[in-house]
Amino acid sequence: MTARHSSLLVLMLTLCACSPSPAPSGRVYPGDPDSVAVYLEYCTACHAAPQPDSHQASDWPAVLERMQQRRLSKGMGLMPAPALAVISDYLQQHAGAAR
Ligand code: HEC
Question: What gap in Å lies between CA 89 and CA 94, rounded to an integer?
Fold first, then answer.
């Protein structure tokens, strides 16, 4: 590994070390940074990603289903199953309390 690459790696590790994870928008999302990264990758394409506690766990599956349809109608194709699984787990884990 070259010196240039290793300093880049250190920079990336430093950036990833802070938690919770700030999105490029400056919003902060709770939880595991790797899951947040997948969540933001797929859920900021059309609008700012909502906070996971903005819906209850029981509501998220229907929202994800609607967003899949919106992707199709924009010609984006469905979210791949592994990403969908990460996003679904992430939202379930940090969903809002029942009101
Ligand atoms: C193909 C574009 C697109 C993508 C990608 C997308 N959305 Fe949406 N989303 C929309 C549109 C259009 C609306 C409805 C208009 C609005 O509220 O801005 C919406 C609304 C929402 C809403 C509020 C209304 C509702 O249906 O409850 C939530 C919550 C939401 N999206 C979550 C998500 C999540 C989570 C993801 C990632 C899995 C995602 N969106 C990805 C297009 C998209």
Answer: 9
pTM of the model: 0.82
Ligand 1: residue whose CA is nearest its atom 16: 47
Contacts of 86 (CB under 8 A, 6+ apart): 35, 38, 39
Q: What is the pLDDT of residues 4-38, one digit of tens each?
A: 666 655 555 444 444 566 776 778 999 999 999 99
Of 25, 17, 32, 16, nearest to 87 by C-alpha is 32
Backbone angles phi, psi at 44, to 5 degrees: -115, 5
Does 45 sit in the ligand 1 pocket, CB within 6 Å?
A: yes
